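Q: I'm writing a short explainer about Fe-S oxidoreductase for a general audience and would like to include a description of its predicted shape. Could you first generate the structure from this sequence?
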Amino acid sequence: MRPEWVERELLDFGIHITDGSITSGRTLAALFSEETVKRLLEAEQAAMHAPNLAVAASMFSKRYAYLAVSSSLYLMTLYDGIYQFSPEACAFREDRKIELDATRCSFVPLEGERHEWREQVVHALFTQCVTPLLDVLNRTSRLPYSILWENVAVRINSLYRSMMREAEDPAVKQRVQEDYLFLKQAAGDVFGAQQNPFRRSLNLADSLLETSNRKTCCMYYQLEKKSESLDYCLVCPLEKKKGTACS
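A: Of course. Here's the predicted structure. Afterward I'll give you a sentence or two in plain language.
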């Protein structure tokens, strides 16, 4: 049974919990198919006026990282708990939010040694719900892994920077720092990869308060129909675009 605060916190990330079965053809499990994810990317490309599937895949991966990765790590770090979902229990809505089938999800609180529990939580999240999706996005759109993984890393950087700014309890601040360091230093197999995909892109200083530029470009500037008010991403690595970006 999930605590009452879980639903409230997930709603802030655009995640809706439903007690009914999900009938959508856009479940995460379905998107592990190249044919299905291509149809989704084509719809995203048209909606955003993206020039190609690669740009659509980049924007979609950024959105998914916010919805699924940021929300999960937020609960893990601040609440010592996680609302664990399977690919079959997660569906993408047309409003670019996520719906979770509560009958197939479970709240997993901290049990035993925290460092062991944390590794299990992160491993399940990435190997079941993140890395397989990035793999199929790469195969379908030819978007390089370096961009896909840095799209996730940017969301993690932003999340932990925000949590550090808002934390008042020294114990919480320490947990934020420790979890961020774990994500940066963990072995690759924790993420279902040969090596840690975040080793170079989780690059905040020890205080976690500074903003740092990306190493790859997410190609947001190529969208004809932008969701933000400015033209470029704030952490754009292209020198000539600095200072003209959106967050």
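A: For your explainer, you could say: Residues 72 and 100 are 13 Å apart (CA to CA).
Q: Perfect, that's easy to follow.
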